[in-house]
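Progress narrative, work stream C.
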Amino acid sequence: MRVLITGGTGFIGSHLTRFLVNKGISVAVLKRPKSNPWRILDVLPSVKIINCDLNLIKRCSPAYHDIRSFRPDVVFHLAWFGVSNLYRNDPAQIDYNLKSSLNLMRLVAEAGCNRWIGLGSQAEYGKYNRPIKEDFATRPTTMYGAVKLCVCLLTQKLCEINGVDFVWLRLFSAYGPADNPNWLIPYVILKLLSKQKPSLTLGEQQWDYIYIDDVVKALWKVSITPSAQGIFNLASGKTYKIRYIVERIRDLIDPSLPLGFGEIPYQSDQIVHLEADITRLTNAISWRPLVDIDEGLKRTVEWFRKNSRRYKQFLQR
């Protein structure tokens, strides 16, 4: 099997890249020329690097020819501009993500791709106060969620036209080692490791978090299960209060450290309940989340404790 990964140097992509390389899979990673591949340095010699900014893929002749010659059987499209809250309503989401994703899909179809696996988001659904199923109406409240939904629908149609298997995984909240520091769990860990008080909302939100190892195993199972096609929720199927998660992290680091609950107001479109029904995915593939929140937080804290130097700039803010 030959696999092409976009976003292979990011949080989720790096874990997937390492997992596939360790399985002996032939892996190519589409990488921005200026991105730092520190997350996959250990497996870099075993990976084919294709240097090109995704939004320039249509005009980048070397990358075009590299992808054509690599002839990927499976494509994991994980790259996305503006994932953080800072860009949630940035119109650049359209220019950088929609057009580039469609151009990539056309290119890999020409290169002989048999299976397209795109990483969507719970943001495509909008607000619900009960477990979300894949057939629920999609009512995104942010530009990020709206563009994710557009990419889902349009790549689904392109796959149908080109005879390519289509899989779209709507990821809820993933966490784990090497995560981006602006997300809640790594933010809290890094602040507490540096003896700083994290500023937080009241923490009443009930969210569904899934550990990165379970995410990667689901991606792998989907790639090798031909019958698994269409849209799936990718989550743990369990929810925990944000306050519990934060206090658990604090207790793993130092129970005496203060927490800034209530220092940040809720956003006007704050999602209070975020829970996935994962029945469709567990029925489609031989997979179920195995790492519970306590074990996942323990592993994550341990990794950040050993690697906090990599986040030096974040800690100096």
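Work stream C, second folded protein:
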Amino acid sequence: DIQAEGLKKSFGNFDALRGIDLRVKRGEFMTLFGLNGAGKTTLIKLLATLTSPTSGTLSVYGYDVRKDVNNIRSVIGVISHDPYLYDNLSAFENIKFFGTLYGLDDLDNRARSVIKQVGLEKRMNDLVRTFSRGMKQRLTVARAIVHEPKILLLDEPYTGLDQHGAQIFGEMLSDLKSHR
């Protein structure tokens, strides 16, 4: 559940968001459309607790974005333009690192499972710096779902994905929706 009332985000004199009201219920998908500069990424950053609102209220899964940052981060997965991966680590090491941040048990098996899910099992031990943009985006999906988040925030998730990666990602989204 995501709820916003009168949500505003300003950067100096520029209002990136002006009084957003929204509610997204469990199991729903919401898509934002708009021109570049319309505030879509700003809203995602607010939901992901990467920035704070200037005014208004915002809660994610019942947690207030101003007070419950760690709780929110434990229930969300974020896929954005930046893969937030470490180039000098292998795919497996990256996923294990992020799994450790979430305090996951049976981390080796979970890391292998999500890497296989995104079709990168054959490259699991290769350094991320050797990956194509599409492969990095697939690994970003694995990073975002390693802790089985309740909410996925997607900011242009198909950017850089090849046809096979896009198909895998689409199937994953359908699968996630059917299990909610």
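Helices lie at 40-47, 69-75, 91-101, 107-117, 133-145, 163-178. No further action is required on this item.
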